[in-house]
């Protein structure tokens, strides 16, 4: 099984994102376009990224200096917990305010106030948990 945020894992995550009605199709309705980085606290750069065009992941893999719209960071233990249990609205708020989930780039406030973005953001954690990993 691939490690969290590895090239292989990100490729599988991109495919699962596109297959999930609560993500790709939901975000396509609002013409969501972003480059999202994922990584660990304390590292200089994210480990991985996805490029989303009209809600659909068109690229996924190792981060290589792409300009990011969002850069999400957390400890390995927190990523693991969210992959196993998902993350609801209350949990997301607590993770953000306690700085367990950090937005190095991106506007958390704007995202959370927009239900068309917040719902899919929460769903992305459930999709992460569906990808086998080490």
How would you describe this protein?
It is a single chain. The protein has 134 residues and is α+β, with helices and mostly antiparallel strands. It has a single domain, classed as Nonspecific Lipid-transfer Protein, Chain A. It has six helices and five strands. The protein has a five-stranded mixed beta sheet. The radius of gyration is 13 Å and the shape is globular.
Topology:
Blueprint (H helix, E strand, L loop, with lengths): L6 H13 L4 H5 L5 E7 L7 E6 L2 E7 L7 E5 L1 H10 L3 H9 L4 E4 L2 H5 L2 H15 L5
Parallel strand pairs: 1-4
Antiparallel strand pairs: 1-2, 2-3, 4-5
Helix pairs in contact: 3-6
What is the structural class? Answer: alpha+beta
Low-pLDDT stretches = none
Mean of pLDDT: 92
* Coarse shape: globular
CATH class: Alpha Beta
Strand numbers in spatial order across the main sheet: 3-2-1-4-5
Question: Helix count?
Answer: 6
**Could you give the count of β-strands?**
5
Tell me the count of domains: 1
CATH architecture assignment name: 2-Layer Sandwich
Helix content: 40-55%
> Which fold name fills CATH's third level, the topology?
Nonspecific Lipid-transfer Protein, Chain A
CATH superfamily: SCP2 sterol-binding domain
Write the H/E string, N to C: HHEEEEHHEHH
């Amino acid at each position: 099984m691939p490690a969290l945020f590895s090239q292989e894992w990100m490729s599988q995550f991109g495919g699962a994102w596109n297959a999930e009605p609560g993500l790709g199709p939901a975000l396509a309705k609002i013409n969501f376009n972003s480059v999202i980085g994922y990584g660990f606290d304390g590292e200089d750069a994210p480990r991985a990224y996805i490029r989303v065009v009209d809600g659909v992941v068109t690229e996924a893999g190792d981060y290589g200096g792409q300009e990011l719209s969002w850069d999400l960071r957390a400890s390995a233990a927190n990523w693991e917990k969210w992959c196993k249990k998902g993350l609801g609205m209350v949990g997301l708020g607590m993770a953000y305010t306690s700085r367990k989930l950090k937005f190095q780039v991106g506007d958390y406030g704007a995202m959370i106030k927009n239900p068309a973005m917040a719902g899919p953001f929460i769903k992305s954690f459930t999709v992460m948990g569906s990808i086998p990993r080490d």
